[in-house]
Amino acid sequence: MKNKSWILLLLLGSMAHLAIAQRFGLEAIGKEQGLSHSLVKSITQDRQGFMWFGTGNGLCRYDGQQIKCFKARPGDSTALGNPIINCLELTPNGDLYVGTQNGLYRYATTEERFIHMDAASVVHNNILQLYRDGDSLLWALGSSGLLRFNLAAPEPSDTQPDIGLTQSNAPFLNGLWFPTSATAMLR
């Protein structure tokens, strides 16, 4: 029994250098590789494996080899209206929602175009955070209110204006609880 313990200890000790010798590889992606800006505020990965980066100057898609950037073109209804991307959220069907400083956009992958989602709503300005609630609801927190989308319908289904959200207190806490300046917490 004593010999088996020594043999086991000797084997484990001799393999320790293998675990230590494993290199952990990181790949840096920045402006030199094609990102449109060095400020990255949001990252997500879609079902096709693309990495999406919301930057201070547009949305960038990385396929492992190349970066393609989608920049704001004010006045173009098929493009982003603002270069600053605050947040990204993928839905179960693969749609990518993009929160910018001038509203919420859905990226139509097959057409490679953006659809402005909330032009007529009270929350059409600075979208601070997106949260998907199950498979059917998408919540958008804007600096001037809260917007709820039924993902099966193209229009917002409910809004809660003037709740006093700021960039510093925008994160959702445990589901749909979040802090505001108008009330202590809103659920």
Structural write-up:
With 187 residues, this protein is mostly beta strands. It has a single domain, classed as 7 Propeller (Methylamine Dehydrogenase, Chain H). The chain is 11% helix and 37% strand. The chain is built from 1 helix and 14 strands. The strands form 4 sheets. A 4-stranded antiparallel beta sheet has the order 1-2-3-4, with no helix packed on it. It has a 4-stranded antiparallel beta sheet with strand order 5-6-7-8, with no helix packed on it. A 4-stranded antiparallel beta sheet has the order 9-10-11-12, with no helix packed on it. The longest helix is centred in the N-terminal third of the chain and has 20 residues. The protein is elongated, with a radius of gyration of 22 Å.
How does the SSE layout of this entry go?
Blueprint: H1 2-21, E1 40-45, E2 51-55, E3 58-62, E4 67-70, E5 85-90, E6 96-100, E7 103-108, E8 113-116, E9 127-133, E10 137-142, E11 145-150, E12 156-161, E13 178-179, E14 185-186
Distinctive features:
Methylamine Dehydrogenase, Chain H; 187 residues; 4-stranded antiparallel sheet; 37% strand; mainly beta; single chain; disordered C terminus
